Amino acid sequence: MNKILNHPIIRFCLVISFAVADVGVSVHAGDTEIEESGAWPAMRVFGSDRAVNRGESAVERHAVEEPDGVLALQRALELALMHNPVLAGSSHAVWAAEGAARQAGVFPNPELELEAEEFGGSGSRKGSTAAETSVRLSQSLELGGKRGKRQRVAQSEARLVGWDYEAKRLDVLTETKKAFVDVLLAQGRLALAESLLAVAGDVHKAAAERVKSGKVPPLEETKAGVEVASARIALDRARRELVTRRKRLAASWGGTAPVFKEAGGVLDAVEDVPSLEKLSSLRGDIPEVARWSEEVALARESFALAKAARIPNVSISAGISRFEEDGSHAGTVGLSLPLPLFDRNAGGISAARHQATRAEYEQRAARLRATTDLVDAHSRIETARVEAMTIKAELLPGARQAFEVAQTGYREGKYGHLEVLDTQRTLNEVKTRYLDVLAAYHKATADLERLTGAPRNTIR
């Protein structure tokens, strides 16, 4: 065997084979930097002014410096886009899909075949004096345009992964804004709880003075003390809620221990929303709708690839043989062609055809869902806007005035403790409801931005 392997022809072919392999390795090893391709869809208008680190390592993404001081909404969104772990993972999925698309267009490797016959026998066939050694190089040829079709399928799949990334990017923006609104809401509730505790303390102090002067029974002071205790419990609950909301916001950029002093912004700003007809014209920009054009294209390319699979591939080979008896050489050629007698990929073609039809129906369904979601968000914004304006213009002034009158009258002895408590609770409920409605308005606005891709900076 060593004599056969040391044959000049075989040694030459082995050298060529290893050289080709080394070239291939060096080419792919130097191709580690993947340039952006069509797998990255164009950013929607919403958030397009903020950069995203694509393909950055996980360690670098986790090395985020926590913001301090007053945190603005724009800064929170930027941090989320730069360091959100879900978005980071999705970006690497795009790189992986682009690598798979590149790999789909690679030609199959040739095969080198070494064969030795008529050696190691007995009699005249003893040893290798009568051996026949052959070296063949074979190459598989894909027919029916399979390589191009396979590459187009992989490219469509990569673009779909890009659309998934864009959807996650918008999700991160939307959820971060909602988390920011929740922090503002929690801050407002905390401020309200602090003011209620101060008011309850004033009422308790006034009740103690009236009891001391003998104007009211001690029961009045006891009731006022119960209200103070209830206000303290509400204040503690508001503080804990704010801590939770702050951590949830920090989680948007991968943080676990927020150090920012407060979220800067005012919820008390509502604007008229554009008409539903105008917003509907932007509906096609969202990834959940736009991606289905690529889904349909992918299904059609897959169908074409399935039909091409019916055509068998051929393998051609060429080589040289050496006859040790007389030292002569002779050339060899070969052709291998599978016979498509049993497998003509009929099932694969049928499946691909139905998948293409399914993609078209799913595209219609996605448009309908987007329309329904748009109507729902628009309705929620309008409802919250009208309610907020009504509370601000009518309920809040009336409830505040009633409480002030009752509080003044209680000190003067005109009203009893029950009247003060009733007006105090009413004012508290109105203020709480106003905060909740404002938060609902801004969250619905965030959903509308997500659906249309058009930013609406309603937090001042």
Describe the structure in your own words.
With 460 residues, the chain is an alpha+beta fold. It has a domain at 45-103 and 162-310 and 361-452: Outer membrane efflux proteins (OEP), CATH 1.20.1600.10. Helices cover 63% and strands 9% of the residues. It has 11 helices and 6 strands. Strands 2-3-5-6 form a 4-stranded antiparallel sheet, covered by helices on one side. It has a two-stranded parallel sheet with strand order 1-4. Strand 5 (314-323) and strand 6 form a beta hairpin. The chain is elongated and about 135 Å long. The model is unreliable at 1-5, 12-37 and 57-61 (pLDDT under 50).
Strand order of the largest sheet: 2-3-5-6
How many DSSP-defined strands? 6
> What is the helix content?
55-70%
CATH C-level of the domain at 45-103 and 162-310 and 361-452: Mainly Alpha
User: First CA to last CA: what distance?
Assistant: 84 Å
Radius of gyration: 37 Å
Q: Structural class, please?
A: alpha+beta
Order of helices and strands: HHHEHHEEHHEHHEEHH
| CATH architecture level-2 label of the domain at 45-103 and 162-310 and 361-452 | Up-down Bundle
What about the largest sheet?
Answer: 4 strands, antiparallel
CATH homologous superfamily assignment of the domain at 45-103 and 162-310 and 361-452: Outer membrane efflux proteins (OEP)
Shape: elongated
